[in-house]
Amino acid sequence: MYRFADDGGGILPVHFVGLESSGNLAFSAGQFSYTGNIANGRGQTLDEIQLIKDSNSGKMFSLMVAFEPTALEGFGIGANVLYDSIPNNPGVVGRDIGIEETIAGAHVYYTNDPLELIAEFQYITHKDRRDYNHGGAYAQIAYKFGQIKPYYRFDT
């Protein structure tokens, strides 16, 4: 799911240029964290990074929120959403119009030594003339023995 687009065809955008704001808010019940982005979105091809300007009139925006309750040290749960308008690519059959991309996901983790449990799911919708839906997920378990932390990860 997190491979680079130009190195094995990852399904999530991992490069963009723009503005990011993040922070934490502490409450007696726990800590709330957020990260928001407004950036140049994807280019006409998977590996095109739009540095100076966006090829279309819209910007990509995303938001991620998470909560770590005080009562459960090391536990967290969160969600994310991303929206982008991918420009058309007249040089590719079927890409004569742009694609609206929406990515929504959720994650949960427990990272309290020596145990580590992590799971994440992402759901992707591409709309042009039709809707195309994709998904990806992984789960990871690790256990620390002294300086060594073997892990197992399953992804789909």
Architecture overview:
The protein is an all-beta fold. The protein is built from no helices and 8 strands. The protein has strands at residues 17-27, 30-40, 60-69, 75-86, 99-112, 115-127, 131-143, 151-155. An 8-stranded antiparallel β-sheet has the order 1-2-3-4-5-6-7-8, with no helix packed on it.
Strand coverage percent: over 45%
Question: How would a textbook summarize the main sheet?
Answer: 8 strands, antiparallel
Structural class: mainly beta
Radius of gyration: 18 Å
Number of strands: 8
Question: What's the short story on this structure?
Answer:
The protein is mostly beta strands. It is built from no helices and eight strands.
Task: Give the topology.
Layout: E1 17-27, E2 30-40, E3 60-69, E4 75-86, E5 99-112, E6 115-127, E7 131-143, E8 151-155
Antiparallel strand pairs: 1-2, 2-3, 3-4, 4-5, 5-6, 6-7, 7-8
Comma- or semicolon-separated keywords:
single chain; about 160 residues; mainly beta; eight-stranded antiparallel β-sheet; globular
